[in-house]
Design brief:
Radius of gyration: 35 Å
Strand content: under 5%
Order of helices and strands: HH
Distance between the termini: 14 Å
Helix content: over 70%
Number of helices: 2
Structural class: mainly alpha
Largest sheet: none
Number of strands: 0
Length: about 160
Amino acid sequence: NVKLQKHETAEKEMLVKVQVLEDENIELTNLLDKMENELKKYGEEQIQFLEAEKKQQVTISQQERDITEYEHQIIALKKELSETANSTLKINELEKGLNLTTIALKEQRDHVTTLQLRITAMNDLLTAQKEQTASHKRQSDESSQLVKETEAHYESLFRDH
């Protein structure tokens, strides 16, 4: 009778331990789901940054073409300068446009650099999240294995008795 009570007490303690392990496994699974959602969110943000960077590159290319066109116009107007004094005003206007476009191009390049730094930071964060997710998955797998081993142990105890 005492052996039966000890066996029942041990069985209850093991069932409590199994329940704790199952609860921990559920918590880890929920944490993994949350981290997966965060990874998806970061991936979507990274795509948005890449799209914004692509648009900036298109703008920069257009501004570089504009600069080349301004330079060609300035060269042509400088040739006309020897023929007419009024060409000086046109050249000044084009040089102002060239300067403004050059400033805008520098600002666009600075913006692209900022976007690239943000993308690098997002990639670093994404890598860290993936590593953390893998770690939690390993913990969850270990917990699941421990639960299975404990259940198998109890099944063998019940079969033996």
